[in-house]
Amino acid sequence: MISKRPLVALGFLLPALVVYGLLILYPLVNGLWLSFTDSSGGPRADFVGLEQYSRLFTDGEVIRAVGTTVLYAAVVVVLQNLFGLLLARALYNRPRIRKPVSVLILMPTLVAPVMASFIFSYLYAPDGTINEVLRTLGLDSLTRIWLSETSTALGAVALVNIWMFAGYSAAIFLAGYLALPADVLEAADLDGATGFRRFRTIEWPLLAPSLTVNITLSLIGSLKVFEFPFVLTNGGPAGSTTTLTLLVYRKVFGGAGEFAYGVTIAVLLLVIVVVLSSVATSVLRMREKRI
Fold this sequence. Notes:
The protein starts with a helix and ends with a helix. With 291 residues, the protein is an all-alpha fold. It has helices at residues 5-34, 51-56, 60-92, 95-106, 113-123, 129-136, 153-178, 182-190, 195-206, 208-223, 227-232, 244-253, 259-290. The radius of gyration is 24 Å and the shape is globular.
């Protein structure tokens, strides 16, 4: 007698598979096809082979956007996880305030990225809060037009990203801290391992799984960033905050007839995200196995 269990399981999976196919697989396959055409967004699209891809390697705008995107991701990944780790360690050592503070540090993640960008645009304004605080402290020389100077714009945009998601990283690290084996920590205390020595030899190695999750999530999220540079600077000044996602938006919706080229840049971004996240995850997984 043929078991009906596989058919029942397939019946439960079918709605999710249909949604996944329509919203993920079909756009992906269709986008790959369009990158080999000269489509301008209309119904007509002639096959042009690798013409769009060959253009990528000679387009200075794309090359600069790749560099900006990677630099932005590096800054966000390092600082977001550093602040998250410091917050998690501080909360782990202070159990009495752990729960209320954990809620507070997660609140920025509830703010819509567009809304957060508008809030920080006021803070970064020439007469905004940041410059006013610096003037009050007598640090007038440190005031800047933060979003209009090429030396500060990208960092200012990255700071919004870090502010939003450092608490999320802290929550993941804190979960890792709470899962640390009690017997290992007790043995460390008996051996006199305290402070930075304890962190370096005990806590940091055992937090490897949490680090893998945090690095992977923050890397993928920062490589795909769109709202922050779009709202805060629109890619300026002088293209210093133009990321690949922002460039895709301009090409696809800019009305210059470069729809297919914009899709090709999106494919390039997909490849970069897959390659960098896969490499990072593989290296971190190897580190976990060595511990």
